[in-house]
Amino acid sequence: MTGSYAAAGLVFLGLFLLGGSYSLFKQASGNGGMRAMSLILVLCAGMSIAAGVMRW
Fold first, then answer.
1. Residues 6+ positions from 3 with CB-CB distance below 8 Å
2. Prediction pTM value
3. Mapping DSSP to helix (H, G, I), strand (E, B) and coil, where does residue 24 land?
4. Whether the Cβ atoms of residue 11 and residue 45 lie closer than 8 Å to each other
5. Cβ neighbours for 24, distance < 8 A, ≥ 6 positions apart
6. Residues 19-37, buried b or exposed e (16+ Cβ, 10 A)?
7. Tens of pLDDT along 7-38?
8. What stretches of the chain adopt beta strand conformation (E)?
9. Which end of the chain, N or C, is less surrounded by CB atoms within 10 Å?
10. CA torsion sign, 42 to 48 to 51 to 52?
């Protein structure tokens, strides 16, 4: 049961990071560094969601 809670936590963390990266991407009008940071956040979110799904 603990693995299921950890998996759900990883999936929710990934969704939280996706929302944060979307917000950061909207704020970065023309700033390349912030756009790169939002892309890194999207990659981290994808890895977190994938790890949560595989653990489930």
1. 55, 56
2. 0.79
3. helix
4. no
5. 34, 37, 38, 41
6. eebeebbeeeeeeeeebee
7. 999 999 999 999 989 888 888 777 778 888 88
8. none
9. N
10. negative
